[in-house]
């Protein structure tokens, strides 16, 4: 597994996942309110100032580049996107829009004994077997059943 470490996580970093802008059926699938896209947009811009980093854990938006451009142009902050299965846009295209695209996972080492791994998909690290690591996966897939084992927390 290739780990892409291009982002420093601070206490000011905001983390969000699975907004799925322009997904016609997600409101029904996940019991979102009728105006869910407007609510996410409003709350995002109310809470995020232009200089703040947003780490998005994947499935940002569905659709073409025009829709991607629309959302990235309207939302505040510096967007760093871990590519999800619905994010079908290239790293070079994102860079021209001021968005950092992370193709796999982001590994943040807090100390010798603690790592945070931000990923859209669950991953298993062989180095964790028999280790003293504390690894936290932060993601959201309602229908995904991920076993919680050892020192792994799936959210």
Structure summary:
21% of the residues lie in helices and 23% in strands. It has helices at 26-29, 36-47, 65-74, 91-96; strands at 14-16, 53-56, 78-82, 100-102, 105-111, 114-119, 134-138, 152-154.
Structure description:
With 155 residues, this protein is of the alpha/beta class. It folds into 2 domains: 14-104, Purple Acid Phosphatase, chain A, domain 2 (4-Layer Sandwich), CATH 3.60.21.10; 106-154, no CATH class. The protein is built from 4 helices and 8 strands. The strands form 2 sheets. The protein has a 4-stranded parallel β-sheet with strand order 1-2-3-4. A 4-stranded mixed β-sheet has the order 5-6-7-8, with no helix packed on it. Strand 3, helix 4 (91-96) and strand 4 (100-102) form a beta-alpha-beta unit. The longest helix is centred in the first third of the chain and has 12 residues, at 36-47. The two termini are 21 Å apart. Residues 1-5 have low confidence and may be disordered.
Give the second-level CATH assignment, the architecture of the largest domain: 4-Layer Sandwich
Q: What is the H level of CATH, i.e. the homologous superfamily of the largest domain? A: Metallo-dependent phosphatases
Helix count, per DSSP? 4
- Count of discrete domains: 2
Strand segment tally: 8
Named CATH topology of the largest domain: Purple Acid Phosphatase, chain A, domain 2
Spatial order of strands in the largest sheet: 1-2-3-4
Roughly how much helix do the residues carry, as a percent range? 10-25%
CATH class of the largest domain: Alpha Beta
């Amino acid at each position: 597994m290739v780990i892409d470490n291009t982002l420093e996580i601070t206490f000011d970093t905001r983390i969000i996942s699975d907004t799925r802008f322009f997904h016609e059926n997600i409101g029904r699938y996940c019991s979102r309110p009728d105006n869910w896209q407007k609510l996410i947009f409003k709350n995002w811009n109310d809470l995020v100032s232009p200089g703040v980093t947003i780490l998005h854990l994947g499935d940002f938006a569905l659709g073409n580049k025009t829709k991607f451009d629309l959302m990235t142009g309207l939302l505040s902050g510096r967007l760093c996107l871990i590519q999800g299965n619905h994010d079908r846009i290239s790293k070079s295209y994102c860079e021209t829009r001021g968005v950092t695209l992370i193709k796999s996972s982001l590994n943040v080492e807090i100390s010798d004994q603690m790592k945070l791994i931000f990923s859209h998909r669950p991953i298993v690290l062989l180095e964790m077997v028999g280790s003293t690591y504390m690894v936290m996966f932060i993601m959201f897939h309602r229908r995904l059943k991920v076993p919680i084992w050892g020192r792994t927390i799936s959210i």
